[in-house]
Design brief:
Elements (H helix, E strand, L loop, with lengths): L3 H15 L3 E13 L6 H4 L12 E12 L5 E11 L5 E12 L3 E7 L27 E6 L3 E2 L6 E11 L10 E11 L5 E13 L2 E2 L3 E2 L4 H9 L17 E14 L2 E8 L5 H4 L7 E9 L9 E8 L27 E2 L2 E2 L6 E2 L6 E3 L2 E12 L3 E12 L11 E14 L3 E11 L5 E11 L1
Antiparallel strand pairs: 1-2, 1-25, 2-3, 3-4, 4-5, 5-6, 6-8, 7-8, 8-9, 9-10, 10-13, 11-12, 13-14, 14-15, 15-16, 16-21, 17-18, 19-20, 21-22, 22-23, 23-24, 24-25
């Protein structure tokens, strides 16, 4: 089915364009040169899977068609592809999807790129477990967009989502499924304040293991995965805690505004077992603040974001049966929490040289993002991260790496085509530093 679906989109999409509907397209070509063997961190991280550490030349094209039933209901279809040199020197599908949405819900099928949040200033976008560091996985799901109120007077409601994905790539365990759901309570009874508290849950399950053969994947097994329950132990205790590889995050968001500024406070935990579920790994997680100026005037700083990532506790005082936590690694699903040999979560979790196991998951990171306009003419985005990597499986007492990573994206031209200057610099406090410079030429229709 996963091989047939992209071709189905290729056949249906021209037919959709033949109708009277809105459409848009985006074409981009990018070239980058860097001083070391791999590019600086922010030139390849959170790039939607379109470039990797060794990419010099890349390009992508995406086309969207939208059919509006009325002012509140619409169908959207999209298809896109990209080319990158480097590790994967070939043309690949970027996305292909059909989506229905109204003012309350959205439903999709296919590979659909997700929305960029916080003006692109966050190091991980939606959540510490789910960034824009990879391309989208093929799947199906729905989301409640607007909170459903729990009583007539309002003030308290809920949002939720549910998706099922397939990791359609070569992995240690092949044909792995990914279950995802989220649930949030939304309190907005107090004027100008909104409190959102909830949970995201991911689980890798099923597939074919070279060690144990076909892993449990019946409907009954799926129900066990859904609730995080222990299943049939056919893999010598590897799934003793729960069927599949589970990851989760408790989330708290506090949103308000004053004058012409929007302010958002962010807190994410992360857990992979019971010690994390009961917050035994506190203070591990993501902490952030985002401030955006809603005034239409051009300013040097129009949006600001600060995030702090910390994962050095790893349940050291409440360890699991096999010791401290080992975020994003798993003994059974050895390719870990990755897709396209890239981290699915915050890109500060680093892979080893073989891009197979997570080498650094004990980290401490300060991250700053700025967005604005220089000289009233040149829109820009600037990122700066200071990251300390302490290894994996509990890590070491002293950082193995201390790196300052910066990134500047400045729009030089907005005319027949858009031209962006890209500059990335990694300053390694212990080894050599790295400079990367590039240009992106793009056109929107």
């Amino acid at each position: 089915m996963r091989r047939i679906l992209p071709w189905l989109f290729l056949i249906l999409f021209p037919i959709m364009h033949a109708q009277n509907m809105e459409y848009s397209a985006d074409i981009s070509v990018q070239g980058v040169h860097f001083s070391e063997e791999s590019s600086p961190f922010w030139l390849y991280s959170n790039q939607r899977g379109r470039v990797d550490q060794t990419t010099h030349l890349s390009g992508w094209i995406n086309t969207i068609a939208k059919y509006s039933i009325n002012s509140n209901k619409s169908f959207t279809g999209g298809i896109g592809g990209f080319y990158q040199d480097g590790y994967d020197d070939k043309f690949q599908l970027d996305e292909y999807f059909l989506n229905f949405e109204n003012e309350k819900i959205s439903v999709f099928i296919g590979k659909m790129q997700r929305e960029e949040l916080y003006s692109g200033l966050s190091a991980t976008n939606e959540n510490i477990l789910w960034s824009l560091n990879t391309g989208p996985m093929p799947g199906v799901g729905f989301k409640i967009k607007r909170p459903i109120v729990l009583w007539k007077e309002g003030g308290l409601g809920f949002k939720a989502s549910w998706e099922e994905y397939l990791l359609d790539e070569e992995r240690y365990v092949e044909n792995v499924k990914v279950h995802h759901k989220s649930f949030y309570l939304v309190f907005n009874k107090i004027r100008n304040w909104e409190l959102i508290v909830g949970l995201q849950h991911f689980a890798q399950w099923g597939g074919s293991s070279p060690d144990y053969g076909q892993l449990p994947q019946t409907f009954h097994d799926y129900l066990n995965v859904f609730v995080g329950k222990e299943g049939r132990d056919d893999v010598q205790g590897q799934e003793a805690n729960a069927l599949g590889n589970h990851l989760g995050s408790y989330e708290v968001y506090l949103n308000t505004s004053f004058s012409h500024y929007d302010v958002k406070l962010i807190y994410n935990t992360l857990f992979e077992d019971n010690s994390g579920r009961v917050l035994g790994n506190t203070p591990d997680g993501r902490y952030g603040v985002y401030i955006e100026d809603q005034d239409d005037d051009f300013k040097m700083v129009e949006a600001f974001m600060y995030e702090f990532y910390y994962t050095r506790d790893q349940s050291k005082n409440t360890p699991t049966g096999d010791g401290k936590d080992n975020y994003f690694n798993n003994n059974l699903y050895r390719s870990g929490w990755t897709y396209q040999k890239k981290i699915l979560g915050a890109p500060f979790f680093m892979l080893d040289e073989d891009r197979f196991r997570i080498e650094h998951n004990s980290i401490r990171v300060h991250h700053i993002g700025l967005k604005g306009t220089l000289a009233y003419m040149y829109p820009y985005k600037f990122l700066l991260s200071f990251r300390e990597n302490y290894g994996a499986k509990g890590g070491t007492d002293k950082p193995q790496e201390q790196i300052i990573s910066t990134f500047l994206n400045t729009k030089l031209l907005e005319d027949v085509v858009d031209v962006d200057l890209l500059v990335g610099v990694d300053i390694d406090l212990n080894e050599t530093s790295n400079l990367g410079v590039g240009l992106r030429v793009s056109k929107q229709f």
